[in-house]
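A quick word before the example. In earlier lectures we treated sequence and structure as two separate objects. From today on, think of them as two lines of the same record. Here is DMT family transporter written that way.
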Amino acid sequence: MLGGALVWGVIWYPYRLLRDAGVDGIVSSTLSYGIAFVLGLLIFRRSPLAWAPSWALLWLALAAAGCNLGYVLATLNGEVVRVLLLFYLAPLWTVLLSRLLLDERLNYAGAGVIALSLLGAASMLWQPQAGLPAPQDLADWLGLMAGFSFALFNVLSRRTGHLPIESKVMAAFAGVVIAGALLLLAGVGSPELPSAPSLWLLLAALGCVLVVANLVVQFGLARVAANRAVVIMLTEIGFAALAAWLIADESLAPRDWLGGALIVAASLFSARMEERTAVRRLDRES
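And the structure line, produced from the sequence above:
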């Protein structure tokens, strides 16, 4: 899981290399996830994949598209760590979506997660000239959308426990490819394909990394307690901060760090809440 956090913390860099070489972010995302999808077909060819069309797979694919496309485009257009911290507002959306889609009651712990997340977001998004905590640019909006989509994917994944993990991973890959293709057909972004063989090699490497990262994280999630998993995955912010500082010479303002600390606290609080909920569920079943 630490390896997965490292991958997601630095995966923005090869996409920036592709952007600097003239490859649009939507094109690079569509191609890399398309390669990951083909590799997934080969790896999972003997697995019990659920290919029958269903609303569950459709919503999972849409959520994955919003998460992955939003994350890549946000990190291409904004400060990496700021985008990632806004992305990790996911516990806020998870609590709200769990109430709507899973009919889970909002308790004091859930209210605490919401409060911490909102305080963190307000600190990061505060605009002194406007006097309002609002997203400052497209990257902020995309980071928020990616975090919401990530939370939606997780909640839907819990709701569709009957589906094999392999099917959910493949639906995620397919969702990015289809959404990216539709955006390009609609005239969003530049549809020019990479011209240099080295760029195609980089895209192929990205596709392989995406497959391995998903398999590694799923392997870890199946064997690590939920509260520990969240703590480990939060190291992604540290990896991203170090990489952004060393590679892109990026830094955050003090209020961004304050907001980030509150958002991380909300994530840890959410993990603890999930653990207590699971324990109570096991006690009832026993």
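Notice the following. Strands lie at 126-127, 132-133. We will return to this example when we discuss secondary structure assignment.
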